[in-house]
Design brief:
392 residues, alpha+beta, Nucleotidyltransferase, domain 5, 2 domains, 4-stranded antiparallel β-sheet, 10 helices, 13 strands, globular, disordered C terminus
């Protein structure tokens, strides 16, 4: 299984100059290829693929004004075109939006395959570099493994990172009989079927004032000045701090969930649609449900756990976990409610987590269709009116 190992490094002046030129060339080739593919379709109804853009790259290198493309590794330029092709494939499949042009101040990245670097004595030597990358080895690579691909990334905050992709065997965790359902929210990041609630740290809210001051200081600086660039870096560093604290918390939380439970059940939420609500968009984005589910997906695959996603329209909050009755309305301000049929009092989030687990187990065992009131009654858990999904 392929697993990436990410490290921070501090390049020398010569290495930084070469890497910045490489990333600039990758960005230029990517943008020129994107422009060619876009204009080719809208002007001539011609679909240009990777092979044709690769031929264009050969022609661009021969132009006098683009002769500097020969000064950097050709592998990184080709990988940039492959990434563009992958972006178009995702766009045609409906998994992503139309590719955007890359911007200089957003940082940059360059990908090096085995033909563009050397792995010697546990050190990385990139193409056209005479010295090894001064990587801070915060953890060792698996014994006997060598990287197949190295991706160099420069963040907008000015930090350099190297991601080494290696083929390794990941030890499976011991089998467990524990199962858990997760209901995601804003006040509590997750409520579990075990009766626990994990508070939402609200990382953005904690640093919002600091970010506001940095952005206000940047707005006072003259456009194009060095002071403006310094202020821009300060804003980027605050954003990086928010991202780091959020990812650190989510990694620790998801690792704990995967280690302790054999089966994890979550909802297949339409997060892109949910953030269209301008009143909840900031809170939902700060909670980062999508990143949490993404981490659960690959960690369950790594360690031999089972992750089940149930239908987003399953009325987990409005269904009584005791008798199965579904209430017609349950506004977001109601955190506890009493079932009008069996008179059981429910905590909204914990009840939803119990129902999510039950629905996930039904899907896992018998393949039941957990969306109510569909055209066919085959495999339904309960025949009733379709309920709208609400989150809080």
């Amino acid at each position: 299984m392929q697993k990436p190992y990410r490290y921070r490094f501090y390049p020398t002046t010569e290495q930084e100059s070469l890497l910045r030129r490489t990333m600039g060339c990758v960005r230029l080739v990517y943008n020129k290829a994107l422009d060619a593919r876009t204009s080719g379709w809208y002007e001539r109804q011609e679909r240009i693929d990777f092979v044709e853009t690769s031929s264009m790259l050969t022609g661009w290198k021969k132009q006098e004004d683009l002769d500097f493309l020969n000064d950097v590794s050709s592998v990184s330029l080709q990988q940039g075109l492959r990434n563009l092709q992958k972006a178009f494939v995702n766009f045609w499949a409906g998994r992503a939006k139309y590719p955007n042009f890359k911007k200089k101040h957003s940082g940059g990245s360059a990908e090096f395959t085995k033909a563009a670097f050397r792995w010697r004595d546990g050190q990385v030597f990139l193409a056209k570099c005479t010295e090894a990358l001064p990587i801070r080895w915060s953890r060792d690579l698996p014994e006997g493994c060598e990287p197949s691909t190295i991706t160099i990334k420069l963040e907008a905050s000015g930090r350099w990172f190297a991601s080494l992709l290696v083929d390794t065997d990941i030890a499976q965790l011991p089998k467990s009989d524990r199962q858990i359902g997760l209901d995601m929210g804003i006040t509590s990041l997750i409520a579990t079927s075990n009766g626990d609630k994990i508070a939402n740290p609200k990382h953005f809210k904690q640093l919002r004032k600091k970010l506001k001051r940095a952005q206000k200081a940047r707005s006072r600086k003259q456009q194009g000045s060095n002071n403006r660039n310094k202020a821009r870096l300060q804003v980027a560093r605050v954003h990086a701090q928010i991202t780091d604290t959020r990812k650190d918390f989510l990694h620790k939380l998801t690792t704990q969930l995967v280690r302790e439970n054999q089966t994890i059940v979550v909802e297949d939420l339409a997060i892109e649609n949910m953030i269209k609500n301008h009143k909840l968009a900031l809170a939902i984005s700060d909670a980062s449900w999508g990143e949490l589910i993404r981490q659960l997906v690959y960690k369950c695959e790594w360690y031999g756990r089972e992750l089940i996603k149930i239908d987003r329209w399953f009325p987990s909050s409005k269904r009584c976990g005791n008798c199965g009755h579904i209430v017609d309305k349950l506004p977001l301000n109601i955190r506890e409610w009493e079932c009008p049929k069996c008179k059981t009092t429910h905590d909204r989030d914990l009840n939803a987590a119990h129902n999510i687990l039950a629905a996930g187990l039904a899907v896992s065992v018998c393949g039941a269709n957990i969306r109510p009131d569909r055209e066919s009654s085959e495999g339904q858990l309960l025949k009733t009116r379709r309920g709208k999904k609400q989150k809080a």
